[in-house]
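User: Could you check the structure of this?
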Amino acid sequence: MDRNLALEFVRITEAAAISCARWMGKGDKIKADKAAVDAMRKRFNYVDFKGRVVIGEGEKDEAPMLYIGEELGTGEGPEMDIAVDPLECTDNLAKGKPNAISVLAAGPKGSLLNAPGSYMDQLAVGPAAKGVIDIRAPIKDNLKNIAKALKKDISEITVIILERERHNELIKQIKEAGARIRLIDHGTVSAGIAPAMHNSGIDVMVGIGGAPECIITAVALKCMNGEIQGVLKPHTEEFKQQALDRGLDLNKVYKIDDLAKGDHLVFAATGVSDGPLLKGVVFTQHGPLTSSLVMRSKSGTIRYIETHHHESMPSKGYKERI
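Assistant: Sure, the predicted structure tokens are below.
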């Protein structure tokens, strides 16, 4: 994938993050989400490519969305699948809480699994534990294998998981295995990426989260040489039928190469409110300051970009640190 196109995608997440960050703590997640969607859509359509949304935002939450099948870009350039979450952690942002990000993933046409906006059981690790996980195995066995791969005692392994009633039994089993637990309200994309980040303090992400977020996470982990496995868990008959209509197997373990195919993938994210992955948007007297991340699977390069957005020079001010 062209490097310039990857940087254009960062500008898209930056625009979305700045727009929705103005709604932080104001208690209206719908308006915040709409601001992100509108800014993202507008910026997408300046980019020279033939994009099609295969993972859209909003089906599950009845929020504004870039809808599945929507065409993006100028229509000139490479054909690409797009997976978007203009504002992950809408509730967090509305309540003034951390960990909200604007995120997208992209790849050549046919590269991203066309999952419905339902749920997926997930298990994600970083490069050092790649090849030792099995989502069908008991969590205790997975934790033992991960600990061995990371050369840690199981008591030093930290598991991140959504705090949901559906996870009560899984959390109990993790405690019995002796591992540490970090509970989160929202934010499975950041949580899924964390095991592949140096010094994140997270070793593994488990549990049932959104299937669209799983696809986006898979792209990031593909770029970082991590691993994720998923099993579809539709929570309504409608979503079950959607999965079947798309030719998906409800009993299959979808591995990272099923979720995100090939070596020409890109992931971009910009922080909206402060989190472990990225700092949030800061509104200075000279204009917004954003912190972003862009990765390409072909090169394996991870770029952190701090951008000062001056009104008189909207495209200037990039400072990169790798």
